[in-house]
Every structure is written in C-alpha cells, then in structure tokens.
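Lab notes, practical 5.
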Amino acid sequence: MAQKAYITPNVLKWARESARMPIEIAASKVNISADRLKKWEEGSDQPTIKQAQTLAKVYKRPFALFFLPEIPKDFQPLQDFRSKGSKELTTSSIFIIREIQLKQSWISEVYQENNEKLLPFVGRFSIKDNPVVVANDILNVLSINPSNYISDNPIREWIDAAESKGIFISRTSFIHSRLKLDSDELQGFAIADKFAPFIFINSDDWNAPQLFTLVHELAHIWIAETGISNEIEPDIKSKTKFHPVELFCNEVAACALIPEHIIKSFNPNIFENAKEVFKSAKSLGISSFAFLVRAFNSGLISQSEYKKLRIGAEQEFKNFLLREADKKANQQKKEKRGGPNYFLLQLNRNSRLFTQTVLDSFRGGNIEPTIASNLLNVKVNKFQQLEAQIAK
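Output from the prediction step:
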C-alpha cells in the first residue's frame, strides 16, 4: 500500500489557489476527482507521497512546503498597472512573476551581503518629472543612440546595454510547452530594486513591441515603480483607462526610442505613404503605430492623417506578419530536425547577466549545486553547454 503524505491541508489548498488553478484541473493532474482533492484540502483524507510530489510540481512549489504547520509568507503581488478591464492573471502569469521574484530576491540578497553599491538611476525621477528628461537620462546611462544602431537587432543592443549597467532582463513566452504566456494579459513587468532591478518581457510578439515594452519597463525602473503592464504600445485614443504611471512610462519610451530631433529629421513625404512609414519605423526598431503616435504628438501629422495612415499601417503590419509566418514556418521545419536550442531559451529566460552571476557563484564555491541548478532550471552536468551559449 502506498505511503500517505501527512501534509497540512490548508497549505495544500493555498498552494493551489495561489497558482490560480481550478480544483478540477489540479485534480486531473493526479488522476483523481475534484471531490477527492477537496477532501485532501479539508484534511479528511491524505494523498500518497507520489501524488503530493506531483502536485508540488504542478503548483511549482517545494514538496517540503506542504508539511509546514501553517501557510508560509509568500512573495507580495506586484502592483497592477494594467489597463482597466484587463482579465485576471492566470496560472502562467502567476508562475512567471513568482519565478522572477525568486531570482530577483536571491540576487539582491547576494549583492547586499557583498556590500555592492546601490544603482544611482533606480528611482532617480518620478512621474512629476519631464518624460523627455527621463528618456534622455536612460539614453545617456545606457549609451544608446537610436539614430545609429550598430546592428539590425536594436532590442539585443538595448538588452546588452541594460545588463551592462546591472539591470537583469528576462524574456520568454512560456512556462512549458503546455503553459504559454498571453501578451494580451501580460506584456512585461519591472521590479525596481536598488541593488538588482529586474525586467521581464513577454516574447510572445515580434521584436518592435518587445522593444517598446523593454524601454517602457526601464522607465518603471527610473521612477522606482514596481508593477506589471499590458497594452503598452501607444495610441491617441481615450487615455482614461490607463494608469498615470503607464501613460508616463509610455511617453518616456516614445521619447527614448524616437527622440523629437530624429523623427523631425525624416523627409515629410514619408507621411504620404504607409509603406514609407513602415520602412522608417522599422529602421528605428519600432512599430508603425508607435512611429505615427510620435509623429502626431510632435505636430508632424494631423489627427485625420494619423487615422488614414494607421489604416494603411495596419495593412502593412498584416503583410509583415504573413512574411514573418513564412519565416517562422521555415524555422520550425529546421527545429523539427534539430530541435529548439534549450540552452538559448533558458539563457533568455534567466537573463544573461543572471545566468553568468549564478555560474560564477557556483564555480567559486559560494552556492550549492542544487541551488544553482534550481535558479537556472538547468542540470549541473549541463552547465558547460549553458556557458558555451553565453559566449555566442
């Protein structure tokens, strides 16, 4: 007879509810009825050790946690800066937020114990400041020049620049193959810590919206406003449904990615043709929509011109997506032969800076192998392959 796990019932229930998982779905993971799981959560029955271990994996909690005498103190929910009417965060969003909070908490404690210096740009401004001034400070600190990217992949340049200044950048679009992140629900979030600020970007989109999200979240760091965001890319529609912090960070992102002197340097004739708008926006690594909003706010086009060009830009965007779909299909064919690069996926998800920091601590004997493995979600005997990916 299988050995019972004498877990704490209310802790088991808390673990499920904090994962935002309906009891029916959780029960199906261990092939039992919802009524049976309810009995475990009430204490009138107990799971086997194997069943409890399975639930620990499903809820992404340590197995030992189920045996605590009372509900443990969990990470505090991040402030919700999302637009009014946004749907409740689902399991995948809860899991990625918790994962990044764990990583950020660990690295911040390490830096504090090592007496690392506070990062001076975290909280340097507030929403009472001029967005242009904040944008210019971000550009200066990161040594970014939007008119002179050195490659055709601006988001990579921004990430490298941010991580070189001690800002950890994580990007992924899934928890695992059956639990993906919805960009309509969560596009990004920032943890504005003075020792180890962390930014997460949902990569379930093409690079231009991701870049705008990244710079938007950098603005959160610069005004020390920790929280989650969605519907980040700007529009000229009613702004009443947006939080003031989000409006400010959007303005900062627009000013940083498309400084006024740059957008005014374009030939005015480009605003006669949606294709030219798309090409001009692409040269800056941004979307046509962000480009048009910036042009409107800078007085380069009227509202009627904006509306007309936006319709054309939407068609150009659809054409672009079709081309991207073809590229993706070809890429997937290649991946079916060789499979996606697991180590590159984990490197982006963990952040390159975080990965290197953990590996350095492990190599220096400062952390246990199991801790390093859990932080990076990579087995210790695969660390060499992960390190090889960093160098590429």
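Observations recorded by the TA: The beta strands are 168-172, 174-176, 179-180, 188-191, 198-202, 227-229. Residues 9-65 form a domain with the 434 Repressor (Amino-terminal Domain) fold (CATH 1.10.260.40).
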